[in-house]
Design a protein that fits this description.
Helix content is 14%, strand content 40%. The chain is built from 5 helices and 20 strands. The protein is globular, with a radius of gyration of 18 Å. It binds zinc ion.
């Protein structure tokens, strides 16, 4: 049984959050409009999720961590989203987020873009995840629907997950056009929240679309590094970087400030319907970029199987 720690986030009202984000994001984008809206039906284009919304018992899980990947991989670190759903006290949870695949299932390393309704007492799991890997043919991106090859809900090493009952309801809509600041969309949001809420940590997750422009995305190689990766530079040399084009559908998980659980405070993976996907760093076309996002503040953080030996390498 993995170690599980639980923490109650500070949960502002949606109206207050919308105001705080409207004010803060103006510093980083030419055009910003933040409001409280009904969540659009996420079973529709371009999302095609198994459930309609991101509301109902919102929570965040940070499972494992980068120390399971570097300096050297620990392949025995394997997890299951059905188990995580129970561990976060939400059987049948709808998960969105960012993680790594289970290499014992996939036969190598790859980015996992989890979109999963976990099983409950009456219903089997629905796995709508994507997997982004390096194509052995041409070293390009190979994005596949997880369910075309696999039937399980495993993942490996680490995952940052936003979980809810997948219900419709009120959410925060963020429209941000033309980036004027240096930070990526999610870092901007996180830093605005950290500045405003300080030592009252706020957690958020949901989904956003990069509607225009291109983005810097990485994919981990299929082979784990045989030699230890001891610095950010060594990790970046090992990763494969791409410039991918909009529209990209991104699943962010963010925590304004780590309350002391050795968290990855932001992590975003994305997929598309044109064969591209992976780990989001930032857009590369600030002058034309358009972001449209739907977010919910989480009530609880669950820290699952926190690595015993830790470091700050490779958390970008
Ligand atoms: Zn990632």
């Amino acid at each position: 049984m993995a170690q599980i720690e639980k923490f109650a986030f500070y949960v502002p009202t949606l109206e207050e959050l919308a105001e705080v984000l409207q004010d803060g994001l103006k510093e980083n984008f030419a055009e910003v409009h933040v409001s409280v809206v009904d969540c659009p039906d996420l079973t529709q284009e371009p999302f095609r999720f198994p459930l309609k919304g991101i509301c109902g018992k919102p929570r965040i899980a940070d499972v494992g961590g980068v120390p399971n990947l570097v300096p050297l991989v620990q392949k025995d670190k394997v997890y299951d989203l059905n188990t995580v759903a129970k561990e976060i006290q939400l059987p049948g949870a709808f998960f969105l987020g960012a993680g790594a695949v289970s290499s014992r299932i996939v036969g190598g390393n790859a980015e996992l873009i989890p979109v999963v309704q976990a099983k409950n007492e009456t219903k089997a799991a629905v796995n709508g995840s994507y997997i982004a890997m390096i194509n052995p043919e041409d070293n390009g991106c190979l994005l596949e629907k997880y369910s075309t090859k696999y039937k399980d809900c495993e993942f490996g090493l680490l995952a940052n997950l936003y979980a809810s009952e997948g219900l419709a309801g009120k959410v925060i809509e963020v429209k941000a056009h033309r980036r004027t600041g240096e930070q990526n969309f999610i870092s901007c949001i996180r830093k605005v929240l950290e500045q405003y809420y300080g030592d009252k940590p706020v957690g958020m997750g949901g989904t956003f679309i990069i509607q225009k422009g291109r983005a810097k995305i990485h994919i981990m190689p299929s082979e784990f590094s045989a030699c230890p990766l001891n610095t950010d530079g060594e990790v970046n040399n090992w990763l494969k970087f791409f410039e991918m084009k909009a529209p990209l559908i991104c699943q962010p998980v963010l925590v304004s400030r780590d309350p002391g659980f050795d968290l990855r405070v932001e992590h975003t993976h994305c997929f598309s319907h044109h064969g591209e996907g992976g780990h989001y760093h930032t857009d590369t076309t600030p002058e034309i970029v358009e972001y449209l996002g739907y977010f919910m503040p989480a009530e609880y953080l669950f820290r699952i199987d926190r690595p015993k030996e830790t470091h700050l390498v490779g958390r970008d």
